[in-house]
Amino acid sequence: MDLTLPPRVTDRAFARLAEIAELTGQMKPLRVGVSGGGCSGFQYDIRLDEAAPDDLVLEKDGQKVLVDSVSLPFLANATIDFTEELIGARFVVENPNATASCGCGTSFSI
Asked: How high is the pLDDT of residue 35?
């Protein structure tokens, strides 16, 4: 039995995407990907982007989060959230697959 689940997007992250769409007048999906690099081996690539044919699309209230097929295994069971802290507001990934991460919060290792 495979317990690998796609990433989950919080209501707070979808709400922030709706705010961005309202502020910019454009409704673009949020892409969450993984690429090689960063101080721990892998890094998250989080940006507004257009959908590609092989993307997993997570959708709520018209807002979309995209994950490409290559990044999907690295983001299994992860949570995509939006946080506002003293250091700034940003989308974050809480990834149970990461064995280590760095202080910047965008780099991790498996």
From this structure: 84
